[in-house]
Write a structure and sequence with these properties.
globular, 16-stranded antiparallel beta barrel, mainly beta, two-stranded antiparallel sheet, 511 residues, 23 strands, 4 helices, 13% helix
Length: 511
Amino acid sequence: MLNILVRRSAVGLGACAVLAGTGAQAQTAAPPASTDPQVLIQAQQRRIDQLEARLRTMEARLAIAPAPAIAQPVAPVAPQVAAPVVPPVAARVPPVAVADIPERVARPPVVRIVQRLTDSEASPPPATGNGEKAGVVFVNGLPRVNSVDGHWWFRPRGRLFLDASTTTGAFAGRNITGTTLGSARLGMEGAVGNVSWALEGEFAENQVVWKSAFVNIRHHLLGLEADGSIGNRFNDRTMDGSVGLGTTPFTDFNTVAATILPRRGFWGVGLQERLYGPNWHASVQVTGEDPNNIGDGDDGLTVVSRMHWNPIKSKGLTVHLGGWGFHERLGGETGSLVRASAIAGGFNTLVRAQPGPVTGVDSDTGYGAELAVITGRFWTQNEWGRRTLHRAGGTDLSHDAFSLSAGWFVFGTTSPYDARRGTWARARIEDPVTTGGWGAVALRARYQEVDYRGLPLGGLGRSTTIGGTWYINKITRVLLDVTDWHIANPGNAPGSIDSGQTVNLGLQVQF
């Protein structure tokens, strides 16, 4: 018992000595340069942690030392009892959260940096939590205002595409050069809990049209994650045509996405449900016309469905198999039933395979298949599709298209495949130019055909494209495509059968 009392007395006296020494250091140390309460609290906490560490070290040394005699520890330790009084800063102070600082002191803003890797046509990510205090998160270069726990958020969104094009070697009337504003979108998106929404308009081709305008609800169906949308949302159809042009590898959609589609196009106001499995997804969409319909007749009714499956899904290798289809009952709309295919970029509208006039059609059906392989920096994407036009009391007509493409990321990132939706995603740039790096560089090639010869007076078009992409950062890229093309349209007019070369240069910023 006597030894224990002696040891405890020694520990206490040693602690006083440590406190005294620390107090002396605290009195002589220069005060912090900052007057921010949070900075002062952090500095105080660091001093407390250092003091506790020194006390634990002394206790350990005393615990392993042999028990001294009663009179021995008093002489050396006693002179330290008269050390200066320990200042209040040495007292144990619990950590103070930012929310506990009095209201008269301005709280530092909650700032985080996140990166959205999906394309602009995807549904906005859901919110979580149930808080009310606001903070700021930067997404793709723009501030996103949200509650601290993410229960609600709101941010602007948009994109800007600038294009230049020149065509040579063709019939004189097709050799044109120019620049254009390929797309200028501005909108907003947000979420409250599992309910998110997006509203966006586009300024392009001398008109203003509505694009994304929908509400999305994240939920579970059959024990799996699901999205339910109502409004005007981009179709889930083909691998290339299920994402926006800001995400596809080339400056334009391939011929399958651009030509094997309903008369109403890529958009439609209605309902869409998507179901996500561990290595697959399936979707179904029921819509009328897009919101820019002029309203001069009854809407058509379109049902679109798509599914993809990854039989192999690993870090080093992913195999993508996909299939899709649609059926459209035509309404009283006016306008072209079959779109002419631009096979050398979107600027030169003279380089097109023409479908010819088609009449007497009351419905149409389309379907197609997808095969892609992604392994590290290399990828290949291949698609085929067919559309059949059903004529009341007449013979059905059809037209086909296919596309074969491949690419290789030289440096800066790997192939940006989104296994959840079976589409391309935004590239994650390892060393952006805007932070002093070189960004990322990709090389790519594509061969594609569109065949309208199953239609009256239909033509044929084919093109071979080689190109490259320089990713400056995650929201900015520069694309260069060089295309050798050939078209064969019926008729004897000059230029009906023609070949040439087109160079397309694009700058894309998508935020």
